[in-house]
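In the laboratory, one determines a bound structure by crystallizing the protein with its ligand and collecting diffraction data. In a computational setting the workflow is compressed into a single prediction: the sequence and the ligand go in, and a structural description comes out. We illustrate the idea with dioxothiomolybdenum(VI) ion.
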Amino acid sequence: MIQSKEIGRARRRIEGELKVTGQAKYAGEYQVPDLLHGYVVNATITKGRITSIDETAARAVPGVMEILHHERRLALPRFDIMYSDMDAPPGSPFRPLYDAKITFSGQPVALVVADTFEAARYAAALLNFTYEEVDFDVDLRANLEKAHKPAKGLATFIKPLPPNPRGDFSAAYADAEVRFEGEFHHASQHHNPLELFASTTVYEGPGKLTIYDKTQGTNNSQIYIANLFGLRFKDVRVIAPFVGGSFGSGLRPQYQLVMSVMAALTLKRNVRVTMDRSQMFTFGHRPETVQQTRFGATSDGELTAINHTAISETSSFEEYNEVVVNWGNMLYPAKNALLDYKIVPLDLYTPMDMRAPGGSTGMMAIETTIDQLADQLKMDPLEFRLRNYAERDVSADKPFSSKELRECYRQGAERFGWSDRHQEPRTNRRGNRLVGHGMSTGIWDVIALPGNASAKFTKKGRLIVKSAVTDNGQGTNTVMTQIAADQLGLPLEAVTFKYGKSKHPLSPVQGGSYTTGVIGSAVKLACLAVKNKLFKLAQIMDGFPLGDALPEDVDFIGGEIVLKQDPSVRIPLKDVIAFNRGKAVKASKSNIPNVFKLKQYTRAAHSAAFVEVEVDEQLGVVNVTRAVTAVAAGAIMNPQTARSQILGGMIWGISMALREETLLDTKLGKYVNTDLGEYHIPVHADIHELDVIFVEEKDEIINEIGAKGIGEIGLVSMAPAIVNAVYNATGKLVKVFPIKLGDLI
Ligand code: MOS
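The predicted complex, in structure-token form:
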């Protein structure tokens, strides 16, 4: 029996002190000898080609060592998916400095390398490009008729295209007694983690590199760079122990990595390239999307017809897709469903997964549509959802591996005080402010992927666990340490999790809310293998003090093997290692998902958000005064880091509903608010009472540790709950997000 001491216990992040005291080093902070600095030059046109480059003034700046551009660069393979990364959609991945073609505004076109950052930046400003511009199109809404279904590939395997139509939507919608039809729109959003993208490449000799990279996947950057520059995998070491947030922006290697490596290989020197804040707006982003919903129900509240269409942007060179429309029929078992998802190629960079890609935006349309039907039925929106609760996923005709959403609704509503809600909009006031209460459901996939870990118990009595996975700040290090500690019954202090290095056992990119389940399972398996080896060694020790005990007769507690029936009979693990002639006991394990078993179930985490808003009637200002999110995500490894994850998601939900958008000037083909002054996100003054509940949920199907993951589920339900609360306060349904002051005046 495993003594569950650490799993489920609230623990602060192990590396937290290093972070708050500034000792944690990020990719752009490593002090390496004789470091050169690169500064990226970005194209000022949106589409066309470079006709000439005048380097004279830039070369004359003291300290300038090299200027790389398409006419002066190392060989790069052609655009080929074989030379791509783990999160690449189908298409031809962008190669910085490849040729004279410009395919999006802000495209990196040169790297100036100098002995100081300041010299590089100054010289970059003096580099003179001439361009030939051609017409471009970045306007999604003007090009909806160009929409097509995305190509199938690895991306559509992990993020499936909509299921086939079910029943007869048109007939059912025509027959429905209550109908709602709406068109929804949101602009692009850029991830903007606080840490800027940076790579410090250390030139270790011909073909050998150590790279400190800002990334969500050390192996991803390693394999990508090795393939791109024809280097051996083992000669490219990628290190990313600390990541200052990423939210999906680090799922793909960004151009600063390619450019710092190219400069290092060209000059045989150590080179750092760091993006500035405005350059953080020159790569992947959440795609602008137009959605249409048509839902129909009977007069007693049975949802009978669901039609949900989404059209999103992609680039001219890759077909990015996300799951926007699939969720509605997973949550609500309408017999007639027609779901459609298409993309429009535009002259922008390829969109990229951004926290709960597709789900967080799709649910804004689905869950506000659900509330509008409830409003027409004069039915409490929670009651309407319960009336249409899916006990089974009818869209895939599969059972759920587990689903405690009902309990999320019940506990969330109770904590929030949902029964005090006014059903009729505009009937609840506090002074000059209208008060509204809204709710929403959340859902997010449990993705299963292979992942690896190794474990070793040393003669000093320490358990060392390794995986190449990164910790993007959310607590992966802490949680993996907890999982490992429990397997051998050790205190947290006796365990070290080594991570964030490409030389460790292979890990997929940290993302999709799957990392705890995927790597946590591998950690568990590796530690259990070490435990079994230790026990087998103990069994052959001279005068085995545990008699003829079998594995099930003992516990591992506090560094000892203890006989369950008589806890005074015990062997210190150190003695077992001494018996092993002082040699550490090691094991490596792969977590390989049982695809055959998994595919028989729909596997999803759920949430329910309950929100109160106050809307100033004269000014239109919306304030989220309090919110409760209840989450069912299987086993929770660490309630403290988990709570922080959900709080972060809830705050992002406030951002999606009320603040965040990248404004695109369709005439110039450029994003125009490319700094944190103009790209609005919530500040402390916007955040009030936020409460998180984890409901009990056991799932023995999904993975070894029963953890569904919590990175995204806290975001999905929050924004639609706010939109619904604003409707409840004002009687106005806003369908263009984020909600602006003018929408409510
Ligand atoms: Mo997440 S959008 O998979 O980093």
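The radius of gyration is 27 Å. Keep in mind that any predicted model is a hypothesis to be tested, not a measurement.
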